[in-house]
């Protein structure tokens, strides 16, 4: 359930991007890269804030991390809405970005996010065996020699890099990080050596399919792809909540 949309990372990116679009933050010095870079900075700052808020007694429980993400994300969303209401300019551009989309994105944007994506995925893949041990729970993993808190810090940093880079370029496309890993896990099992590469590939395929549907459904116009993923993600989120009540999940 540690999706960037839930952890508040998307809200932080949205606030950074909104500041760039409404107030011209960084536009004169960064040019066309002002929007993705301010969004990236907002996402990283939010992730650091959420982690520090969730940290209790030297530990970071996942449930507390999610609650902190929801709280911080809600606050940042409110600030973003306030800026939109009081500014009164470029509202359409901001709203379209907040809904997420791949329109107008090119290889220049790919080159901007590529180093962060590669670095984040490399860190995750180097820790797949420890992730498998973590499936036993925090305490058993600790007894087996895994520095649980250190591993959480490293993986949260890697996940922040990849999520922040993706959101900075595409806008807020919610629920992809929630739907895909759980769906792929049902097919390939919990082994992270297979799960991580499979989820990465499946996420790319799902987003491409959603973007294609968004372009075709309202042709010659275009529906923001975030609308399509949210329509799929909302019901799936409810399914996960109900499924979790069943024994053995």
From TrEMBL:
<dbReference type="GO" id="GO:0022857">
    <property type="term" value="F:transmembrane transporter activity"/>
</dbReference>
<feature type="transmembrane region" description="Helical">
    <location>
        <begin position="106"/>
        <end position="126"/>
    </location>
</feature>
<keyword id="KW-1003">Cell membrane</keyword>
<feature type="transmembrane region" description="Helical">
    <location>
        <begin position="65"/>
        <end position="85"/>
    </location>
</feature>
<dbReference type="InterPro" id="IPR037294">
    <property type="entry name" value="ABC_BtuC-like"/>
</dbReference>
<feature type="transmembrane region" description="Helical">
    <location>
        <begin position="154"/>
        <end position="182"/>
    </location>
</feature>
<keyword id="KW-0472">Membrane</keyword>
<keyword id="KW-1133">Transmembrane helix</keyword>
<protein>
    <submittedName>
        <fullName>Cobalamin import system permease protein BtuC</fullName>
    </submittedName>
</protein>
<comment type="similarity">
    <text>Belongs to the binding-protein-dependent transport system permease family. FecCD subfamily.</text>
</comment>
<feature type="transmembrane region" description="Helical">
    <location>
        <begin position="32"/>
        <end position="53"/>
    </location>
</feature>
<dbReference type="InterPro" id="IPR000522">
    <property type="entry name" value="ABC_transptr_permease_BtuC"/>
</dbReference>
<feature type="transmembrane region" description="Helical">
    <location>
        <begin position="6"/>
        <end position="25"/>
    </location>
</feature>
<feature type="transmembrane region" description="Helical">
    <location>
        <begin position="194"/>
        <end position="217"/>
    </location>
</feature>
<dbReference type="Pfam" id="PF01032">
    <property type="entry name" value="FecCD"/>
</dbReference>
<keyword id="KW-0813">Transport</keyword>
<feature type="transmembrane region" description="Helical">
    <location>
        <begin position="223"/>
        <end position="241"/>
    </location>
</feature>
<dbReference type="GO" id="GO:0005886">
    <property type="term" value="C:plasma membrane"/>
</dbReference>
<keyword id="KW-0812">Transmembrane</keyword>
């Amino acid at each position: 359930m540690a999706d960037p949309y839930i952890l508040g990372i998307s809200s932080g990116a949205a606030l950074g991007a909104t500041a760039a679009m409404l107030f011209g933050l960084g536009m004169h010095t960064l040019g066309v890269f002002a929007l993705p870079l301010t969004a990236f900075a907002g996402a990283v700052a939010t992730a650091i804030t959420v982690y520090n808020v969730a940290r209790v007694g030297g530990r970071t429980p996942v449930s507390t991390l999610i609650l902190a993400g929801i709280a911080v994300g809600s606050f940042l969303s409110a600030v973003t809405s306030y800026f939109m209401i009081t500014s009164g300019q470029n509202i359409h551009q901001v709203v379209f970005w907040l809904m997420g989309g791949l329109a107008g994105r090119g290889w220049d944007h790919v080159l901007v996010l590529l180093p962060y994506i590669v670095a984040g995925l490399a860190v995750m893949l180097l820790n797949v065996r420890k992730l498998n041990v973590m499936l036993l729970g925090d305490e058993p993993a600790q007894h087996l020699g895994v520095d649980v808190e250190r591993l959480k810090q490293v993986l949260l940093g890697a996940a922040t890099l990849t999520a922040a880079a993706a959101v900075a370029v595409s806008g807020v496309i919610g629920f992809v990080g929630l739907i895909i890993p759980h769906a792929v896990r049902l097919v390939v099992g919990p082994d992270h050596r297979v799960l991580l590469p499979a989820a990465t590939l499946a996420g790319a395929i799902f987003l491409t399919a959603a973007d294609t549907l968004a372009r075709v459904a309202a042709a010659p116009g275009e529906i923001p792809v975030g609308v399509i993923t949210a329509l799929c993600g909302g019901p799936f989120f409810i399914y996960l909540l109900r499924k979790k009540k069943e024994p053995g999940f």
